[in-house]
Amino acid sequence: MTERSVPASAPASPGWLSRLLMAREVSLVGLLLLVTLGTAVINPLFLSFGSVRDLLLNVSIIALLVVGQTLVLLMKHVDLSVSSTVGLSAFLTGSLFVANPGMPVPLALLFGLGLGAVLGSVNGLLVAYGKVPALVATLGTLYVFRGITYAVVSGGQINASNLPPSFLGFGTGSVLGVPNLVLLAVAVLIGFAFYLRSYRGGREYYAVGSNSEAAVLAGINVTRRTMTGFVLSGAIAGLAGVLYLARFGTVDATAGAGLELQVIAAAVVGGVSINGGVGTLLGAGLGALLLGVMGSALVTLRAPGFYQQAIQGALLLAAISIDMLVSRRAAKRLQEERKS
Amino acid sequence: MNRFRSLLGGLLGWEFSLIILVGAALLIGGLLSPDFLTGSNISFLTANFSEVALMALAMTLLIIVGEIDLSVASILGLCSAVIGILFAAGVPMPLAILAAFVTGGLAGLFNGLLVTRLGLPSLAVTIGTLALYRGLAYVLLGDRAIAEFPAFYTNLGFGNVPGTLIPLPMALFAVLAILTIIVLHATPFGRSLYAIGANQIAARFAGLQVERVKLSLFVLSGLMAALASAVYTFRFASARADNASGFELSVIAAVLLGGVSIFGGRGSVVGTVAAVFLIGIINGALTILDVSNEILTIVTGLLLIGSVLVPNLLTHFRTYQQRRRIKGDSVIQ
Amino acid sequence: MKKRILLLSALALGLSTLSFAQAPTTIKKGLKITLLPKNINNPYNVIETQGGLDAAKEIGAVAKVVGPSDAGASSQVSYINTAIAQRQDALVLAANDANALLPYLNRAKQAGVKIVTMDSDTAVSGRTLFINQANSEGIGRAQVQLLGKLVGYKGDIAVLSATPNATNQNTWIKWMQEELKLPRYKDMKLVKIAYGNDDDQKSFTEMQGLIQAYPNLKGVISPTTVGISAGARYLSTSPSKGKVALTGLGTPNQMRAFVKDGTVTAFQLWNPGDVGYLATYAAASLASGMITGKQGETFMAGKLGKYTVGKDGEVVLGPPYTFDKANIDKFDF
What's the whole-model pTM score? Predict the structure, then answer.
């Protein structure tokens, strides 16, 4: 635990730090290439335009959610409620469209962001001010938000045929062949990656997660940083809910259920430590992509349907185990280097 | 010592309030519906949460040492699949049940080894095994549902203690709950769990075998899930790969509502038992009042948050008052 | 003493057979009926239970719809127990599992609750009547016949089903495989049965996976309303639109857009509201003692007319109806 927080708490010496972090991301990229090319050799259709486009679309919603989750994980917290936020946002946005078919798409996106921010602030208040452990608070709101969705939906469903064509067009549209949803997810990811890397506010997430007491002594307002993190995670989940609606068109009360574990899995595979203070958004995004590619490859390789879940679980375990062994060895090497 | 006593007082306070709430829920349910407080109805509704109750016992111990096991419901599904597939292949039922226990124990051992030997966080490990074990259950059984078990066994899951309205699985739970209470609160092993949960490094310096204790608790959690799988399989006379999926959150919600700290070192079995009953009874009362399922989801979530938030706010309020009193005193001086 | 009881019960038996000889000819007023769908959030189930409520209104029964929010095997159990506790006269349900509910349904039967299944059956011993939307063999074969016509009896085909354990889907798929054995389908090959779990997103990605994994895929049958609409939505924006034929069971409102834009040529269904309507009339006739569920008995079902109980207590609503561009606008459900 302590040996893992060493690299991140010393951002001043970029030489070996970036080497270590790069190594993790490089290995992720390597693995990605291996899986992609390996699958493509067996079934060239895997790299066809349509297939790649579908894959990226599938990953884009998870990748977006991973951004918010990473902010929270960096502070040694967790946000289990994201899946329920996605569901509530998707359904309410859909209902809004049914009531006002003429609503412009940007307004829908803003609505999702705003709703998500409100839901996120509930988590933030509980964790930052109520001192409720994040796992408990967000497990609670996972139930509450989902329950509210059930109550609001009460057996209803939003169908693609109730949504205005402009919105559905946004969901299926693309710029220069890249789907809109993918562009949006990548933009958010890059924006936050830059913020985490180069801004004081961004670095504070690492400081809070590495050592909360030291962060207080360093003059960081930990309570406010925690609050902000949860509000951002909620807002991003709300936005993801609107994209979910645009992507799938049909939404019922169970929309998004179970996404939380996939999102956490993606972040952890991407090298974000569950113990806080370690990880990058580039890695987390690559983690989401890797899990998506593996899932898709299993389908393309015609792995029997019943094996897919088991294989994905095993891959996740392998990823975090290898990650731990590599970082242990790196830490050991560092110690030896220092000694000599 | 004083502090320890006040801590004990606080804990008993929480458990006491939970037990009061259980009583209140029973009373309100009975007042609102004449069909609620009948012996057979209470018997139904307690039988209904027996699997969650069984798994919550081991989960309490795991969370007290600061670990967690999200894979319990998947282990249940896997063990249920093992029972089903072996029975269908003609293996005698006692052997099939034994195989389920071996499977559960091994699954728990695997979780435990990854956590204690590799030093991986249990939350991440058991998210992985949650998918892995459920996946293996599907590999074994696929879309098949094995049913038509011998009546002797389904009666074990379905029946009551002869001459009473107490469901057999609940009687089993009562025995195991008492055993767990004794082990946790009256043996050196039990006390060592609190020490490990409160401060792992200090516990190690004090000579406790932290890794071995944790490993044994993960195995115990797997065995309990195996036991719950036998109960579930016979209670529903059906072995399927998707048995009990999603139960892990109910188990954890019950343990946390019972006052066990997610950071370890604090909590009791009595609290967990009271919480299991509270959720089950509220669930049963709402169902019989034809209140829809979603309200229950919301109530569970609110109870869970309230269980931590309310004591926190009370402490906060008390220290605030104390501070004011001290301030007031200093002004007078 | 014992003898006297025996005598008395014999007398009672005699009396009851006597009264049976003059079976009532009208439905009792004020019957208490519980409608229990697979889950309360499925739009198909909402239409179905609405039909049941309409029927209840016509016959002056007090009916209500209760149910779980997920379609898990065991989640209907507490609602069955509640129906017993509330002393309902009849329970109309679409079963989530053929076996898991049996012991509970038997308990309900013993408590005097009449059991009618609709849409998705339990094992025969679990209920008195089963309202089948259409003859299972007919549904299975008709869908293969329809797809065969659409793909010119040539190429790879796949099935996109609901959950791997769904009783109704699995029976239909069995009959599809039977139909495919006929010589006229010798050039059609069933390459995969995929499961979308009646979850919109899962069905969507499963459809996507089918098209990716099987480049020679010519047609897909999705015998579930969730699956066919999700599959159609994927197809309508994919390059395979028009190259892969999709058919199955869907509701006109969900499929209208896709029939009009050419993604789907034809699909089948019955009116789900009629299923619930017929089931409620059947349940009320049972609870009024007008029928006992024996083969050959007849009963009236309001606007639908006269129905006869078939083998094993099965009542068939009628043949499925094929919707296409020409007739779809005549339907609104």
Answer: 0.81
